[in-house]
Specification:
single chain; alpha/beta; Rossmann fold; 2 domains; four-stranded parallel beta sheet; globular
Length: about 325
């Protein structure tokens, strides 16, 4: 007899300053992040973690020493379990992080000890990418295979109605009554990835565009908007335009009010709270933008949680 559980898959975040270096090492030792043979990738990951550790700790110190990623993920698991229970689908929902604790391997051990046989792998990243969802699912499938469990993956949901509704409702609060008079603009941001990933067939930019178009369509009113990419982490060619160049261009064009929407995230994290709220906001002010507002990630929105419950139910129907 099958017994199901859900793993909510994410990259995770270090729980404190002493865990930052190990967290960075795990990221850069992932072959999906640095596609080199292990004899080259592992020493390089050690070097990158060592050289970036101090700067990363400084960023986390601005947030009080840690990220809200994990607490918000735990709360999402509790909310999703409650939503499934209301639908008669009582099952455990566990956070499972690729690079931090609680890790995917820890979650699998907990499920195995609880008698789980089938695991719905639900990514926290709506837009599929090799560097996020693919890496998480591959790790989950490997750990579950060792434990004798089956994985039922949910790979992407860029235009999930619940996700779109959650973002649209959050954004509406920041839209002025008259776009033209206020010279306002909505800047959608997604985490950038190297162009080499896109050339290998990564559907991420197409999924990002799908999410953005769905949100704009759900607003029920015309808005001036554009899309840019944030948090580039290495040299080479990445998706463009960058968030910084987009903000400077908007300032030159006379934009006065800017609402920023980080559509690739479902929890707050270093990229939203530091890269946008601190760095990008400072750049916008220096460039003369009168008002810069970052739309909060709707991590606890009922529409998002119910949308996830829909995805889990669909996965369960397909698995039986």
């Amino acid at each position: 007899m099958s017994r199901f559980a859900v793993c909510l898959l994410g990259m995770g975040a270090p729980s404190g300053p002493k865990h930052v270096r190990a967290y960075l090492y795990r990221i850069f030792s992932d072959r999906h992040i640095i596609p080199l043979p292990a004899p080259l990738r592992i020493p390089l990951a050690c070097y990158i973690a060592a050289t970036r550790c101090r700067a990363s700790k400084a960023k986390y110190s601005v947030l009080g020493g840690h990220s809200p990623f994990t607490p918000q993920s735990r709360a999402q698991c509790e909310a999703l379990a409650a939503a499934l229970d209301r639908r008669g689908r009582t099952m455990p929902v566990l956070p499972a992080m690729r690079y931090a604790s609680p890790s995917i391997e820890e979650a699998v051990r907990t499920m195995r000890d609880g008698g789980v046989t089938d695991v719905v792998g639900l990514s926290q990243y709506p837009q599929y990418s090799l560097a996020t969802t693919a890496s998480c699912l591959e790790t989950l499938e490997r750990a579950c295979a060792r434990a004798g469990m089956r994985v039922v993956p949910v790979r992407e949901y860029p235009a999930l109605p619940g996700l779109v509704a959650a973002w649209a409702e959050a954004l509406k609060v920041y839209l002025p009554a008259d776009n033209g008079e206020n010279r306002s603009h909505v800047l959608f941001l997604a985490h950038s990835i190297p162009l080499r990933c896109v050339e290998r067939g990564d559907p991420y930019p197409a999924h990002v565009a799908e999410t953005v178009n769905a949100i704009v369509g759900a607003l029920g009113r015309p808005v001036e908007w554009s899309l840019a990419y944030q948090s580039r982490t290495a040299r080479g060619s990445w998706l463009s335009p960058s968030a910084e160049s987009a903000v400077l261009d908007l300032a030159r064009r006379g934009t006065r009010r800017l609402a920023v929407v980080p559509v690739s995230f479902v929890t707050e994290n270093l990229e939203t709270l530091y890269d946008i709220d601190a760095n990008l906001a400072h750049l916008a002010a220096s460039a003369g933008l009168r008002r810069f507002a970052r739309v909060p990630v709707p991590h606890a929105a009922a529409a998002l949680i119910e949308g996830w419950a829909d995805l889990v139910e669909g996965a369960l129907r397909g698995a039986t």
